[in-house]
Design goal:
- The protein has 437 residues and is mostly helical.
- The chain has 20 helices and no strands.
- It is globular and about 55 Å long.
- Keywords: Cell membrane, Membrane, Transmembrane, Transmembrane helix.
- This is Nitrate/nitrite transporter.
Length: 437
Amino acid sequence: MTETAAHTATTTTAPAGPAASAARTVPAGPAGGARAWLVWGIGVSVYFLAMFHRNGLGAAALEAQERFDAGPALLSMLPMLQLLVYVVLQVPTGLLADRVGPRVSLTAGAVLMAVGVALFAVAPSLGTAIAGRVLIGMGDAVTFLNVIRLAALWFPRSRYALVSGLTGVAGGIGQAASVAPLSFALHGLGWTGAFLAFSAVTLVMSLLVLLVVRDRPTGPLPAGTRPRVRALESIAEALRTRGPRLGMVHHAAIMPPYTTLGVLWGYPFLVEGVGFAPGVAGTLLSGIGAAVLWVSPLIGALAGRHPGVRRPLATTLASLFAVGWLAVVGWPGGLPPTGVVLAVLMVSAAGAVAAPALSFDFARDGLPAERTGVASGLVNMSGFLTTVVVTVAAGVVLETGAGFQAAFVPLTVTTALAGGALVTMLWRRPPRPVADG
């Protein structure tokens, strides 16, 4: 079977194991349609807000240092604890997504984020602020996996990469919107007013999820088509399937660089490292994030129709990332020229936005739609665990008085190593996507 034929097949070939028989009885995939886009649109709006809240501290980093009297290393713990909670909960929320469905999970996630943002808004001390960020991380952890799960349950397999790519676009918009708008809100409404306003918006979105979103087009699956596979068996099934393993390595290589910048260090890097004025730095981060949004749906559409393009696309991205970041940290005499820095940021932003279209499409290979939650959780965990490590490492290095070139060395090392592993896996044996319709 050719790769394209396998990608559009209507019967899943799953690995042998406790749930193997269920893979042969999963019904043909859904047709999509207007209602599918509406349900996904409400779900992805929650993801937009999750990305907004996740990256909002980047625009407020300097204000947070003054408000909580925290240095760079201590300040980095705020978003990193949030991301650590996110990482730790990826597999549990993947299991939850497979068992209770996206509607309940997304509603609970939005409520947790709203409460966390409100607590962060009124926090009188760093300890209370940390508690707020932990709640945001718990709500954030639920969102992306369930939006991806809605895509798997409401759209045919051939559109999964496209919808995943559009999900990445929504996240990219949320990430870009967290810089300039939040910066203006902080100056206009103050710390408490700005964050309370965004908390209220998130609470309204939780009500929309409850009213509009449904788990699947045709109601619950018939008895016997979705056996309760034990947690460890679900994890083992995903790990022994090549598709999820490729997705994990790809996400670890492509997602962390720009996420690290968006979460915390991009704004300080452009202001204190490169020398841009604060307003220019915020506009640049927002502009770069917005300028590359078209990449994700394009890659998603190509991968859906021509799955053979995934290998050269993933290889090219991994190579560009490694070369670009090696140039940033290894440029003799200090940071490279501004044009080189901006080019690396542009490529990193494009890769971060496009990552879902490839990483999670790889993760679908060999698994039916009903068991994508755990695989998606593992893929997400690989990218964000790497992000947590390199972002905290950057803060520790900066605390010693070293510059941003030294601070970004850990990020460059992990990007190059993961990229090398990805290229090796892809060219040793090309991926052969198999789908359930």
